[in-house]
Specification:
The protein is mostly helical and about 325 residues long. The chain has helices spanning about 1-15, 15-20, 25-55, 60-85, 90-115, 115-170, 225-245, 245-255, 260-275, 275-295, 295-300, 305-335; strands spanning about 175-190, 195-215. It is elongated.
């Protein structure tokens, strides 16, 4: 069990297990110490990553677990920059300190949003109401304009229909005239003095016949489309009036469904700025997270060199000497 824990610690920290198992108990304890610190940080950020992905990225269970794994991998890689440094300089410590402050702020913000969830929901009511009031006038004015335009169109159509009905009542039918052409044969009898007989001649004469018939007034067929159009306009007007009556609840629903991470930050900032208790709790979480983030860095900063570090350095020195020897041999060979 001991070897399994040390092997797992070497996997997390990046230490070489083959070297560690031949080192003293001091080096083994250093691996265990770093492993414990890493596990605390990883578990904390796994929870933060899961909550952040689920709450603000609306991820599924699988996506939230993936978010946790990504956060853990990032944390391990950051901590290894300190753990695996043989002679870390002040810039590395400074950079890690800046990252620790940033991560403590981010972590405390996310955790406080989870802890203060009910308080944030109450504070959201005021936040949402302010946003609703901001857009309510313009939305109301726009709907009223649309309703007025529809009412004018309805009045125009009804006036047109009324005029048609009045005209149809006066003239229910119209006289339609049609002209037909035909030829008529006319006979003409004349006396021929030479023969002493009557001579009959025929000729075709064109004749135009005008016929009249009563037809229904053509404007009757325009009544039905007009009534259909008026009904459609009335339906649209009714929908707009209903939307006008329900505009406030609808705006509240739309705005509340689109509250995101930055909006909740604004709400939480408002809550913290007005409540000393909320500010104190946020500071407690910040200090706790910052301390956890600094565990590895402080441990590394004030740790004496152990035999693992000396073995690694010794191995480096041997490799450097070997490379120098190869270089010298190559120069002698070229001569």
């Amino acid at each position: 069990m001991k070897n399994i824990w040390v092997r797992f610690g070497c996997f997390l920290t990046g230490y070489n297990y083959a070297i560690v198992q031949n080192c003293s108990e001091i080096s083994v304890k250093a691996v265990k110490r770093y492993t414990s610190a890493l596990l605390i940080v990883c578990l904390l950020w796994a929870f933060i990553g899961f909550s952040f992905t689920s709450r603000y990225l609306t991820g599924s269970l699988a996506a939230s677990l993936s978010g946790s794994i990504i956060f853990i991998i990032v944390i391990i890689q950051i901590e290894r920059q300190i753990i695996l440094a043989i002679n870390p300089n002040k810039w590395l410590y400074l950079t890690r300190g800046i990252i620790a402050v940033t991560m403590a702020i981010i972590g405390s913000v996310i955790l406080d949003q989870i802890i203060f969830q009910q308080d944030i929901e109450l504070e959201k009511i005021t936040f949402i109401e302010a946003r609703v009031n901001k857009v309510l006038d313009s939305k109301t004015r726009e709907l009223r304009t649309q309703i007025d335009d529809l009412q004018k169109a309805i009045i125009k159509k009804e006036t047109e229909r009324k005029n048609y009905i009045t005209e149809i009542a006066r003239n229910p039918t119209s006289i339609i005239y049609s002209t037909t052409s035909s030829n008529r044969t006319e006979k003409n009898v004349t006396f021929d003095p030479i023969t002493g007989n009557n001579v009959t001649t025929e000729k075709s004469v064109p004749v135009k016949v005008i016929n009249s018939s009563n037809m229904p007034n053509p404007k009757i067929s325009m009544i039905v489309p007009l009534e259909k159009s008026i009904n459609e306009l009335n339906i649209q007007k009714s929908k707009k009036e209903s939307a006008l009556l329900n505009i406030r609840p609808q705006l509240e629903k739309d705005i509340s469904s689109k509250i995101g991470f930055l909006d909740e930050l604004e709400v939480m900032w408002s809550l913290i700025s007005k409540s000393g208790v909320a500010l104190a709790i946020w500071l407690i979480w910040f200090v706790l997270l910052f301390g956890i983030e600094m565990l590895v860095l402080v441990s590394k900063r004030f740790e004496d060199e152990n035999d693992y570090d000396r073995i690694v350095k010794h191995h480096m020195v041997l490799q450097m000497k070997k490379l120098d020897l190869f270089e010298q041999m190559a120069k002698n060979y070229t001569r």
